[in-house]
Amino acid sequence: MTVEIRTLDESDVADWLRALHAGFLISPSVTEEEVAVRRPSFDLARTRGAFDGGRCVGTFRSMQRELTVPGGAVVAASAVTNVCVLGTHRRRGLLSRMMAADLAEAKERGEAVSILIAAEHPIYGRYGFGPATWVGEWEIDVMRAAQDKRYGGPADGGRVDQVTVAEVRKTGPALFDRVRAVTNGAIDRPPFWWELATGERVPPSRPWKEPFFAVYRDAAGRADGLVAYDVDDHEWPNKLSRTEVKVRQLVAATPAAEAALWQYLISLDWVTQVRTNLRAPDDVVPLLLGDPRAARPVTYADFMWLRVLDVPAALSARTYSGTGPVALVLDVADPDGMSGGRFLLETDVSGAAVCGPAPAGASPDLTVPLPELGRLYLGDESPVRLAALGRLTEHRAGAARTADALFRTPRRPWCPDFF
Questions:
Q1: 363 falls in which pLDDT band (50, 70, 90)?
Q2: What are phi and psi of 210, to 5 degrees?
Q3: Is 213 part of the annotated catalytic residue set?
Q4: Which of 85, 83, 35, 30 is nearest to 57 (CA)?
Q5: Given 124, 127, 229, 407, which residue is catalytic?
Q6: Distance between the two ends of the chain, CA-based, in angstroms?
Q7: 124 a catalytic residue
Q8: Among candidates 302, 238, 300, 250, which has minimal Cα distance to 274?
Q9: 323 vs 381, residue with greater confidence
Q10: pLDDT value, residue 1
Q11: Do the beta carbons of residue 399 and residue 407 sit within 8 Å?
Q12: Among 161, 241, 245, 258, who pairs with 252 as Cys (CB 3.0-4.6 Å)?
């Protein structure tokens, strides 16, 4: 029997969630409560299933998000999530069919890029995605961090206070909007995100335990930073503490807030280890310590992948580095034919850019396969390195170095959120 790919009706949601749970190895069944809690986050017009004889055997969903790009502008992004095909139906092209339909509709809606978080590395390159952001994670040995355990609070006139869930719901969204406005690679957090993060909405498959929350306020009383963390107090051998702090999220709109919140966590009584959450790969947290070696890297991996859907719109939206006007002709190779072509990227002395179709007969400076453009777009990857690897082709001597100077950013992009 032919497997049907289609968007969902209300009557499909429970079966779709059962397939999702099975594919993600969560549970073979789904409760009515789970359906009721999860359903409000779904746009059924953007939620697809693969149905074999009426039973859902594959899932796929996307959401519109705002993605911050270099320079602080935002582009409309199609955020792909909840992708799975059951083991009984693998290697039948079901993911390819769902992906093709979603990408075509996203481009038609005017979304400049599509983004996702890849559970497995080899899957998404064939659909034009490339890893655009990476993450790092550290375990901090507090005893070796060479920090003053007599720390009594920020010396800049600010303060750190523990706060309630209700206060987080009130101050968190506005604070995060300030942070994402200056964080290349960040996406917006819709109300549903905050409902899950603060326990207002709890799916049975994802039990919620209230964490500790603390906020940094500057001398004028403005909330500039927020941290949520759990504490795991292990058995104390020989009456020596062995207490671990696990950070769920830490966002800061200013360097002072960032330093104050990490100092607060490290100086908590009894704490011997702090495990950061997934941070930017060039995060400053090790350098905030008296001994940076006390921060042991435990994770370094790709995170958010990106596929450009509209090359002129995407490349025109961000700003670029460099010292003068630059013109670069890019041959973007897209085997699917959706986003490829020859484009002229022109930047001015301020870094602003205009991108459009290249003039007829213009010779390319670089040929860039679409997945490699995804790597380059937010400024994380080096065109020179990709050229050395044979992943892009330089047609004019020095063009890769020119592109490197344009695309690279002073700080590496970071997406703080799973989606």
A1: very high
A2: -65, 125
A3: no
A4: 85
A5: 124
A6: 33
A7: yes
A8: 250
A9: 381
A10: 64
A11: no
A12: 258
